[in-house]
Amino acid sequence: MHRATLAAVAIVIGATGHLVLAPGTGARAPAAPGSPPAASFEQLDRSAISDRATDSRPEPGERAPTATGIDDWGLTMFVDPRPASEAALATATPAPPEVVRFRPRDGWTDVGRSAQLSVRFTTAMDHATTEAAFHATIDGVDMAGTVRWAEGDTVLVLRPSTAMPYAAVVELRVDPGARSTAGLEVAAMTSVTFTVQPRPRPTSSGSAAPSGWQWPLIGPITQYFRQTLTAYGIHQGIDIDGDTGDPVRAARSGVVVVAGYADECGGLQVRIDHGGGLLTWYRHLSAIETTVGAPVTAGTLIGRVGATGCAFGSHLHFGVGDDGEFVDPLRYLPPR
Q: Architecture of domain 205-331 in CATH?
C-alpha cells in the first residue's frame, strides 16, 4: 500500500454515514523518490484500505492517528457529537397535539339552533383532560350537553342539551391542559366564534315550502345548487355540513329505492322515491340505517353523515330530482 496514493484521497465520513469525496481529490501527490508508480484510485485494493483504516497501530516511522482520523493519509472522520440515544430521541419524539378545525367554523353565521359543536385534533386525545379544556360558551357561560368522540378519538362532539338562542354569538375554545393519548399537552389556547341563525320572519302562505318536507340534517350549507367549488363540475344539490355519525333523516315520505353504493362518487347513499317523478338523494354516508323497499316518513332515520365517495370531509350531499332533472332542493325544504 503506497502512502502517496492515499494522500491524494480525502474521505469524509459525515454524520449521515455516507462517504463523500472532498473537492480536489482527483490529483495525486508526488511519489517519493525511488517508489513505484502510484496506482489509480480505481485500482486500489479496497480490502487493504479497510484493514488499514481499522488498524490503529502506526507503522515504524509513522505518526499515530490524530483525534479526528489518520492525517498522514488525509483520512478525516466527522461524527455526530451527540450520544446515540439523544440523536434517536430527537427524531422519535412525537409532536404535541394541535387543533385542526372547529365546527361550526370561525365567522360562520346562520348556524342552526340544534347544530352539534365539534373540534378536531391532529392526534388521538385523552378524554378527561380534553373534555375539561373544551368550552362552548354564550356570554361567557358554558353550554350544557352530551359529549361523544369520533374518528379514532381525534374529534370531540358536543350536542347541546337545549337549542341555542336565536342570533346568539357562540365561542368554541380549547384551553391548555388538553392532552393527547401520548401525554403531550396542547401548547396554546385556540378559539373561534360563530353566530346562530336569526329568528325566522313570518312567511306568507304563497311562499311557504310544500307541505310534508323537512330538513334531512341540521347544519350550515357549505355548497349550494349549481355552484362549482370543486373539481367535480356543476353541483347538483346542496352540501350540509355535519360530523361523521350525525343522523340523516328522510326529507319526505316515500319508498327507499337505493341503499348502498350506486355510483362512483356518491359513496354510501340512500335514494327515496316520493312518487310523481320526485326523488331525493342522500350521499357520502358513513352508515345506512334503512333497506331497499322500506317505506319511510319525513324524519325517519335513514343513515349517518360520512365522507365516502368523492368528498372533501364529512358532510351530507342532498339532491332532489324532478322528472329526471336535478332541481334546487331549497325550493322544497321549509325555511329555517
A: Distorted Sandwich (2.70)
